[in-house]
Amino acid sequence: MQSNITNYIYDKVKELLLHLGLTQEKIEQYDTLVISVIVIAIAITVMEIAYRIAFFATKRIVKRKQYNFLLQMLKGKRLRKVAHLLVPATINTLLPITIDANSIILHYIELAVSIYYVIAMVMATIAVLGALGDSAFNNSKYHDRPVKGFIQVGKIIVILVAVIIIISILTNKSPLYLIGGLGAFAAVLMLIAKDSIMGFVGGFLLLENDMVRLGDWIEIPGTSINGNVFDISLTIVKVRNWDNTIATIPPYTLINGTFINWRGMSESGGRRIARGYTVKLDNIKPCSETMLRRLRKLDSELATYISQKTEQTLGGKTANTANPDGLINGTIDTNAGLFRAYAQMYLKRHPLIRKDMLVMVRTLEPNETGLPIQFYCFTTTTEWVDYESIQSEIMEHFASVMPLFELYPFQTAGSRDTVISGLLEGQYPIERIDGLPYKTVK
After folding, report:
1. 91 close to 113: Cβ distance less than 8 angstroms
2. What is the DSSP letter of 152?
3. Neighbours of 351 (CB within 10 A)
4. Which among 13, 92, 177, 360 is most buried, taking Cβ atoms within 10 Å?
5. Are residues 393 and 320 in the same domain?
6. Domain shared by 252 and 286, yes or no
């Protein structure tokens, strides 16, 4: 049956060539070539028709429902690259029934078609991977994922496999034979392209371990890199610093070194405040009854706290930690302890401080400048401007109320302090001196 079809096609082609005025000798020489050209033309026509049908159908589907993947397939001629698979498939189907199996040219055509088929497969796979990457990037669920790197890995693997298959086709050897010979080639490649390979491996490890995502705020200690990641690939990571400069980092730098990723802070919804003042040690003293009466007027919650702590003291049940009455950590024994209690109350009732996260006021190890008091809490927002505003408000408030507790933060004396000290020692009228410390002169 197949032989009859082949003979019939050859006869028709010969009649066509005779009609065009070619001699019998020329016809015997070119009939197979003409049939091959006709088969290729048919394959291209089939591909073009299939592409137009697929393109029209895809556009109709996208108009009804916005499928992101299909939208991306319509871009960059990706659908046409997939349709190219029909060309070698059609040629492989038609060749056995159109060309004599004993023809010498058939072998070379089949070789070329096999290579073309591999190339078309690579083009189609890369097009689909590109569409998947773009659709994932536009999807809010995967927008912060380093999809680009994984897509690049997929493309590289596809190209490497295709190269091995094409070489095996040209050399008529098994791909396994070629893979076995890659060991010596890899050793030479390591010497020539060491940095590129390290970058590739580092990028893959970076993506595989989910160490960095798009949009992450990263900081590399000891460098000027401090900003948001806006591009990740297998060979490079791009960071837009807060001063709007752009830094490019090889992935292996992040793998081999140390960097800070603030993603955890962003995902938690709370950003830490850990600041404080260093109080002069000679200002810390026991609370007198006069001081307690005066500070009751400062804050109603503090007044209640002082009353309850006084009752505990009178009842012999004083407890400053894990208080059975539910009182916060603090004491009315010293002005520093009472200030810690007030600061804790202030932070716990502040509307922009997270109540479900740690809120703590503590003293650190004393040093040559005094006793550090630290305010430790988390804001309800991670936005930089809002966070700085909240932090500034809290620090300014504590600086303003500390003198009411007869506590004063340490400051290195400047020329202004020296001049004021000289004026006071010279009995200069106090009311005429500007810039005296708040609540220090009565």
Report:
1. yes
2. H
3. 7
4. 13
5. yes
6. no
Instruction: Look at 147 and 322; give whichever has higher pLDDT.
Output: 322
pLDDT digits (tens, 9 = 90+) for 200-211: 677 667 766 778
pLDDT per residue as tens digits for the range 406-438: 898 888 877 777 787 787 778 778 777 776 666
Task: Mark whether 46 and 124 lie in a shared domain.
Answer: yes
424 domain-assigned: no
Which two tokens mark 13?
């082609």
Say yes or no: 369 and 356 in one domain. Answer: yes
* CA distance to 271, 377, 394, per residue, from 268 (Å): 8, 13, 21
Considering the domain architecture, whether residues 344 and 261 belong to the same structural domain is answered as: no
Q: How many Cβ atoms from other residues are within 10 Å of residue 336's Cβ?
A: 23
Domain assignment of residue 383, given as a range? 272-411
Three-class DSSP category at 252: helix
* The pLDDT of residue 32: 64
Q: Do 171 and 231 reside in the same domain of the chain?
A: no
Give residue-wise pLDDT tens across range 238-256.
999 988 899 988 887 888 7
282, pLDDT greater than 70? yes
Our count of domains for the chain comes to: 3
CATH number, domain at 251? 2.30.30.60
Q: Which of 197, 302, 289 is nearest to 250 (CA)?
A: 197
Instruction: Specify whether 281 is located in the same domain as 248.
Output: no
CB contact at 8 A, 375 and 394:
yes
Do the bridges between strand 237-241 and strand 360-363 make them parallel or antiparallel, or are there none, so unpaired? unpaired
Cβ neighbours of residue 26 closer than 8 Å, sequence gap 6 or more: 17
Helix (H, G, I), strand (E, B) or coil at 28: helix
**CA-CA distance, 341 to 305, in Å (whole number)?**
9
195 occurs within a structural domain: no
Q: Considering Cα of 219, then 220, then 223, then 225, what sign does the dihedral take?
A: negative
